[in-house]
Amino acid sequence: MRYQRWFTPWVLVVPALAWLLVFNLWPSINTVILSFTNAKPLGGGTFVGLRNFETLLHDEQLRWALLNSVIYMVVCLPFLTVLPLLLAVLVEKKLPGITFFRTAFYTPVVASAVVVALIWQWILDDRGLVNGLAEKLGVISGPLPFLSDQWLLLLSAISLTIWKGLGYYMIIYLAALGNVGRELHEAAAVDGAGPFRRFVHITIPGVRGTMILISILISVSALRVFSELFILSGGKGGPGGRDNSVVMLIQQYSQGFEGNLGYASALSIVLFFVTVVPMLVLARLNRRGAEA
Amino acid sequence: MRSRRLTPVAALAVAALTLAGCGLGSADTSSGSQPTVDANAQVTGEVSLQTWALKPKFTSYVEGVIKAFEAKYPGTKVNWLDQPGDGYDKKVLSQASAGQLPDVVNLPPDFALPLAKQQMLLDVGAADPKISEEYVEGGVQAYQYQGLTGTFGYPWYLNTDIDYWNSTKFAAAGLDVKSPPKTFDELLAAAKVMHDKTGGREYLMSRLPGIGDFTNAGVKILSDDGKKFEFNTPEAAALLDKYRDAYKAGYLPRDILTQEYLGNSKLFTQSKVAWTTGGGNAIQDFVKDNPSLKGKVVPSPALDTPPLYVQGLSVSAKTKNQAAAIALARFVTNAENQAAFAKIVNIFPSTKASAQDPYFSKSDGTPESDAKVLAFESLAKAKVLTPPIISGATNDFIGQQISLAIAGKISSQQALDAAVAKANQLLTQ
């Protein structure tokens, strides 16, 4: 007696496939289509060829946004790849009360990005905690413009991302550290290797794959940053709009009755390619490293 | 091998090109939807009315108006929907996209414009020629757009801004609050005096210029056909230069250019600046939020031309009951109903007949009443200073360029040229 027909696997796959087609594939294809049009939320639009992409080439806002995204990635990448590993090594040790530290480091991850950014806004503004303390201690004579200077605002947003991401990547490293053989450390210790040498020659190679994965995750999320910059800049992209990210530009162009969906879609395509490049580079590095 | 790899790509490309027409409709048109009935058609049947954030505060008022309408036109039934204040634009956009706009819908002029462009709103002026006789000119004009023929809404209620001054701060700087500045140049001169006399501790001004200020300076914002922005003139640059110099000299607070800027009105309420603009009842809010301001706030007419803020009721072009929809929009906005509404909330009626109502035109001598009368009198010369076509990304970009010019990072002319170029690009896209 056979209960299984040839179509049984397809029946099981259909819900997931339908979901994928409707909510992933179709929107992606539609974005590509819209990027060649002057579509608006009402009344659609017409085919305009490469006009949106031509406009992108001369868009000063996009240049600033790309620069911000690249700076974001370049700064976040080393910090968020190395610091969480050090933290993970620290909290991996079985010491009394270590769970408290594990939880404390993970807390920012659980908090909503918007809430965290708002708290940081209060901390960093002219009358905020940091400026208040620094002024009381006599370190500065006037408030530092963390939120009103183009570069300080970007730096503040990067610091926030790093602080918030530490716990998340630490947990991933903790899982990876569990797979690094204890006997390797013991053997190295017997051979006279100190903690630093063991870290460099055993721990790092042991979590190499995880490190590459984390680097890819950080690069992608840094290039697609939105909440931190949006909240800290009050949604306006900082002084003169020079602290926008590409995602913020997409949001600005697509909103409202007169939203330029065509142009916003062209920006999305640019963001897609910008995001794919570091992913490919890191994946290639990983492959080379694995082959070596 | 290569051809096998290319097959899915080619198939995807063909599919994409085939689908390219999906979601894309016709381009903009230049005339509004014409009504098929006139104001004298028989009014009966069901009709829907959408308002914006009137529940629960004004539920009984709106229900009373609806009851009166149903009594006046037996056989009619009004279905009232009230949408929350936040995200109303998104709600209207989704209704319009789905072709489900209510028959009568509350739309400010900048919301009505994109719908009118897509022929989603009825030209109520064509169905009801008396509209320009019975409603104030500025209100009606707010629903007439450059490049489009027709009137796309009944003006419902109006508001404007007047100036408020902090008399204590004026006295501290040796300025006379009884003769406050009347023009922008006088304002700048007073800002300098306040800065110099208080050693830079007190500020008079705390706002950035915008499109409304350019209009007030006599700058033409849009071309006559509404298809091109042209506010990058030497006059507009001169205005920005004045703001830049004032900012550099310290007459304006530093954080005016950042997100930390709370707004003119909040800073005034906190007694951090000596001047703000606000509606006719803003004085009550200042005193309520900061009781120490009681007796210290002096109102005066707005500098130059006061801005006109308009709300209106538009009729969906897709309504299945045009006669009842037009009658309802007219009924809700008639002089009697507007006057009753204006007595429970701080708005002013858009009907000419209300001009004689002593409630709006006579003061009882208190600063609150003076402010209300001043605002009402200002309505006569108030104008919509910012064309409704400026919204969203255009508005953001113009604001950013103005900030850069005032911060001195680029010249005023460069900022205006960049703003006009981007605004035109967004307009034609």
TrEMBL record, chain A:
Location of the ABC transmembrane type-1 domain: 66-282
Superkingdom per UniProt: Bacteria
Any one GO CC term of the record: plasma membrane
Database matches in Pfam families: BPD_transp_1
Membrane topology, from the record: Multi-pass membrane protein
Coiled-coil region: none
Keyword Nucleotide-binding part of the UniProt annotation: no
Entry keywords, A to Z: Cell membrane, Membrane, Sugar transport, Transmembrane, Transmembrane helix, Transport
PROSITE patterns recorded: ABC_TM1
Any one GO BP annotation for this protein: transmembrane transport
Record carries keyword Repeat: no
Bilayer-crossing regions: 7-26, 70-91, 103-123, 151-176, 206-226, 261-283
Subcellular location, record wording: Cell membrane
Family: Belongs to the binding-protein-dependent transport system permease family.
Protein name per its UniProtKB record: Multiple sugar transport system permease protein
Annotated organism of origin: Kribbella caucasensis
From TrEMBL, chain B:
PROSITE patterns the UniProt entry points to: PROKAR_LIPOPROTEIN
Keyword rRNA-binding carried by entry: no
SUPFAM superfamilies tied to this protein: Periplasmic binding protein-like II
Keywords (A to Z) from UniProt: Cell membrane, Lipoprotein, Membrane, Palmitate, Signal, Sugar transport, Transport
Signal peptide start-end: 1-27
Pfam short name (any one): SBP_bac_8
Domain of life of the source: Bacteria
InterPro entries, A to Z: Bact_solute-bd_prot1, SBP
Protein name per Swiss-Prot or TrEMBL: Multiple sugar transport system substrate-binding protein
Protein species of origin: Kribbella caucasensis
